[in-house]
Amino acid sequence: MPIANCKRCQRIFNKTRRDICPDCIAEEDAAFVAVRAYLREHKDATMAQVTEDTEVEIGIIISLIQDGRLILRDNPNLTYPCARCGAPTQAGRYCADCAKELTHELSVARTRLQKDGQGDAKRIGFYSKP
């Protein structure tokens, strides 16, 4: 097993599937249970209210959302900033507008790369002497 530093506490541990140590995984699981129970009772809570009442850090709540463990479809007031523009979002790293823009930019870049590479289509492969 590879040895790694925990992403959260920086302790050395035997890395398995996750980037955090078993102690931090246990803390994250406890935080998940606390936040999920709180959100079931308080559907209109904001991020500040959840953090204050559950004593779970905002970063942990956001990572639970981004990892797909916490789904906010029933909690309309629970948002966090988009990683690109700072607009409020409820899922993923980017808001809907930024995700759409990035998708468009990537498709334009892919099209441009495909056009640039068409002249090289005959050169694909390798040459060997008979």
From TrEMBL:
InterPro entries with a match to the protein in the record: Flagellar_operon_YvyF
NCBIfam families, sorted: YvyF
The protein, known as: Flagellar protein
Natural source organism: Alicyclobacillus mengziensis
